[in-house]
Amino acid sequence: MIKWLTAGLLLLSSGLCSAAEEEAALADYAYYGFEPEIVTNYISNRKKLGFVKLSVELMVKDPEDLIAIEHHDPLLRAAIVEILGNQPEAKIKSLTGREEIRRECYDMVNRLMEQETGRPMIVNLLFTTYLYD
Questions:
Q1: 3-state DSSP call for residue 16?
Q2: Which of 18, 47, 86, 131 is most exposed by smallest CB count within 10 Å?
Q3: What confidence tens digit (pLDDT) does each residue in 90-119 have?
């Protein structure tokens, strides 16, 4: 009985250590937000011009990478604007389309950072605000 109790306590304590280690690893992540927000037009089916306004946050594993990302901000912003500007209205306004756009932006930004710095830096790209008209 004591052996089982001891084994259970060891498992529980190792689980707590793993959770603490995971939390410590997550603490290293940093975010870069594009300022000001990105506002651009998209391909509209109506006579009225359609636009989309969004806040974009880039998640990086190493806070030191923020310096390189800030340096390449204009390049990354231009790539995101170009991707958004080539999207049809239906894709901009649908949830699945928005996720496809987010993924396309993530892939492009990571590719550009790899070309410029020699390694992909971006862990995730988030749309924290997404408005369209």
A1: helix
A2: 47
A3: 999 999 999 999 999 999 999 999 999 999
For residues 17-34, give the mean pLDDT. 69
Decide if 12 contacts 90 (C-beta within 8 A).
no
What are the phi and psi torsion angles at 132 (to 5°)? -140, 160
Around Cβ 113, how many Cβ atoms within 10 Å? 22
Give the single-character DSSP code of 28. Answer: T
41-66, pLDDT tens digit by residue? 998 888 888 999 999 999 999 999 99
Please tell me the total number of residues recorded for the chain in this structure: 133
**Which three-class secondary structure state does DSSP give residue 114?**
helix
Q: For residues 53 and 40, what is the distance between their CA atoms, to the nearest angstrom?
A: 7
- How does residue 127 score in pLDDT terms, banded at 50, 70 and 90? very high
Is 38 in contact with 109 (CB distance < 8 Å)? no
Which DSSP string do the residues of 30-88 spell out, in sequence order?
EEEE-SS-EEEEEB-SSSSPEEEEEEEEEEESSTTHHHHHHHTHHHHHHHHHHHHHT-B
